[in-house]
């Protein structure tokens, strides 16, 4: 398994999707959408 | 192949523990651990890597059988590579704008060739690049690694900090990037760039995305690990094609960045410096004689438009032309690049403030003095008065310093400009009368004689300038 020796930076990884044109922006949007959905899905279990 | 006794670890190669560079005599070796050795074998079997190496874009590299063990750093070495030797290592803060731009474009070109072949680079640093004269070359062969689908470039942040941001600062704002890169080995942070590029400047090409969005994303994702973000991006459909599109976008942006400064004082120096035709002919003859015998390395200190560096290159294997004015160096670089000159390296440096050692313990990036100390011939033409009068450096210190920028037994070719000379008089006019009582030719000659053997001496026809050829320590 190849591990990067360098801390690539989380934000620096995501921004590369955004600068990769329309398709890249769609990937970034999907990533954020999934994060949002995951947050709402987690909430009921937090309370119950 | 036998490993000579004098194996020395390259102090700038510790960041990636998978490989390490050593100097064994005149050879440059790179030891690889098991994983890096497997990567190397895969890399050597690709089409793009040998092609780029043959084209001179990547430094010539071959696997060798070491005759003896190389010092280990906690892990056994599985393979050893031998690299082509770079004639004079130069740091990005010693490059001009066009040099940094061409280096950035070469890095991107290599990445664009590597990605379709299933490879990427682990990092994106300006320090991955060096020079053969005016020709950039990628030296970090240990940086190539197989790309995993769905992963963006790990070197993007480093590319921004050490290559793209300095270029944006110079191209958009006319700000010299060299002092910033010299001060910070890791380059300029997105957060600093956001502050500089406020207001309407935030709309300049490349700034909204690579500076502002990049900085904002870093802040918002500071709690997320890169491993999490990588898997999220993969799940969201990030592809190798997208990685390629990013590289192409960066290339397009860097190509658009340009910086053509207005005329500086030094840019016009050859016309305004007050030499007569006779003086110039005599000086050229003197210098031409001093550089015969095919010296390995000649330094031209205060090179200006490179007239004497070019003259030296007719005889020498390699010439480093050091000049303070970034605009003059940039012009010289562009001319040399157009001529495909591979034996003259132009560098930006103020010789009254030469590059110190930088990075970890001040040795990760070698200072100018240890690099210059192996020059076979050092030219210091029309330089001493600028240091001694213009910068108030005591004359004995100037002579000591010049002698130290030359190998023991090497030749120092130095010009002394009399206080009566129009150029020296102009410098003296800005200083109080009587400030430099020791600045005269007899004193200078005594100092030279204390530090070496004066082989030749020539007073130029105009009578206010004298040239000396000195064997240092001889």
UniProtKB/TrEMBL annotation, chain A:
The protein's name is: Uncharacterized protein
Q: Does the keyword Transmembrane apply?
A: yes
Assigned keywords, A-Z: Membrane, Transmembrane, Transmembrane helix
Q: Where are the transmembrane segments?
A: 12-33
TrEMBL record, chain B:
Which GO terms fall under biological process for this protein? methylation
Q: Which GO terms describe its molecular function?
A: methyltransferase activity
Q: Which domain of life is it from?
A: Bacteria
Q: Which UniProt keywords apply?
A: Methyltransferase, Transferase
Name the UniProt record assigns to this protein: Methyltransferase domain-containing protein
């Amino acid at each position: 398994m190849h591990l990067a020796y360098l801390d690539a930076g989380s934000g620096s990884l995501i921004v590369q999707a955004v600068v990769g044109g329309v398709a890249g922006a769609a990937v970034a949007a999907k990533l954020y959408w999934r994060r949002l959905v995951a947050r709402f899905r987690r909430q009921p279990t937090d309370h119950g | 192949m036998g490993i000579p006794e004098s194996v020395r670890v390259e102090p700038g190669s510790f960041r990636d523990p998978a490989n390490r560079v050593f100097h064994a005599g005149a050879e440059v070796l790179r030891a690889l651990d098991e994983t890096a050795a497997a990567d190397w074998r895969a890399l050597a079997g690709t089409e793009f890597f040998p092609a780029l190496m043959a084209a001179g874009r990547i430094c010539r590299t071959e696997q060798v059988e070491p005759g003896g063990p190389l010092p280990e750093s906690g892990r056994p070495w599985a393979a050893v590579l031998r690299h082509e030797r770079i004639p004079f290592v130069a740091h990005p803060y010693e490059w001009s704008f066009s040099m940094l731009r061409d280096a950035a474009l070469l890095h991107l070109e290599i990445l664009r060739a590597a990605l379709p072949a299933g490879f990427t680079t682990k990092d994106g640093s300006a320090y991955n690049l060096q020079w053969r004269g005016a020709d950039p070359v990628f030296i970090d062969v240990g940086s190539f690694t197989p790309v995993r689908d769905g992963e963006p470039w790990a070197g993007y942040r480093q590319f921004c900090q050490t290559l793209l941001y300095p270029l944006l600062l110079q191209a958009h704002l006319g700000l010299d990037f060299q002092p910033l890169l010299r001060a910070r080995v890791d380059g300029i942070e997105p957060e600093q760039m956001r502050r500089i590029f406020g207001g309407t400047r935030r709309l300049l090409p490349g700034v909204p995305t690579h500076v502002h969005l990049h900085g904002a994303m870093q802040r918002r994702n500071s709690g997320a690990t890169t491993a999490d973000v990588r898997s999220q991006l993969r799940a969201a459909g990030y592809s190798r094609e997208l990685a390629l599109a990013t590289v192409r976008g960066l290339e397009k942006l860097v190509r658009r960045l340009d910086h053509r400064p207005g005329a500086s004082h030094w840019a016009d120096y050859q016309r305004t410096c007050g030499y007569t035709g006779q003086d110039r002919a005599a000086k050229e003859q003197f210098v031409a004689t001093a550089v015969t015998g095919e010296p390995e390395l000649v330094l031209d200190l205060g090179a200006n438009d490179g007239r004497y560096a070019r003259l030296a290159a007719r005889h020498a294997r390699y010439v480093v032309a050091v000049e303070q004015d970034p605009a003059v160096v940039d012009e010289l670089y562009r001319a040399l690049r157009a001529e495909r000159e591979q034996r003259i390296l132009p560098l930006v440096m103020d010789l009254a403030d030469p590059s110190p050692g930088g990075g970890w313990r001040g040795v990760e990036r070698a200072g100018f003095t240890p690099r210059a100390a192996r020059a076979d011939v050092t030219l210091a033409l029309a330089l001493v008065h600028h240091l001694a009068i213009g910068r108030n450096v005591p004359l004995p210190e100037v002579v000591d310093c010049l002698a130290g920028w030359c190998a023991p037994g090497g030749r120092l070719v130095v010009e002394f400009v009399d206080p009566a000379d129009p150029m020296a008089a102009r410098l003296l006019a800005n200083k109080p009368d009587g400030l430099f009582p020791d600045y005269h030719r007899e004193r200078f000659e005594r100092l030279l004689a204390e530090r070496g053997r004066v082989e030749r001496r020539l007073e130029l026809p105009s009578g206010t300038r004298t040239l000396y050829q000195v064997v240092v320590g001889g």
